[in-house]
Design brief:
Blueprint: H1 2-17, H2 20-32, H3 34-41, H4 49-62, H5 65-69
């Protein structure tokens, strides 16, 4: 039973990741929000977790999800 659930989850994940619309959407979102993605993965000694979280929250205050989606 657990194996069936795992196989179903794996098949569903494979089907969704091979969807060309989803792949294109993710690529365009990353290109549009490259500053946010860069700040998430850029590890600097002076850029602490608190500063990173403040940057992310201010980023989404300026650009709401709906505006970003369009």
């Amino acid at each position: 039973m657990i194996k069936d659930i795992f196989d179903s989850f794996k098949d569903n994940l494979r089907e969704r990741t091979t969807n060309p619309f989803l792949g294109t959407f993710v690529i365009v979102w990353v290109i549009k929000n490259w500053k946010l993605v860069y700040s998430l993965f850029y590890f600097d000694k002076d850029f602490t977790l608190e500063k990173r979280l403040n940057y992310i929250s201010s980023y989404f205050k300026e650009d709401t999800f709906g505006e970003n989606l369009v």
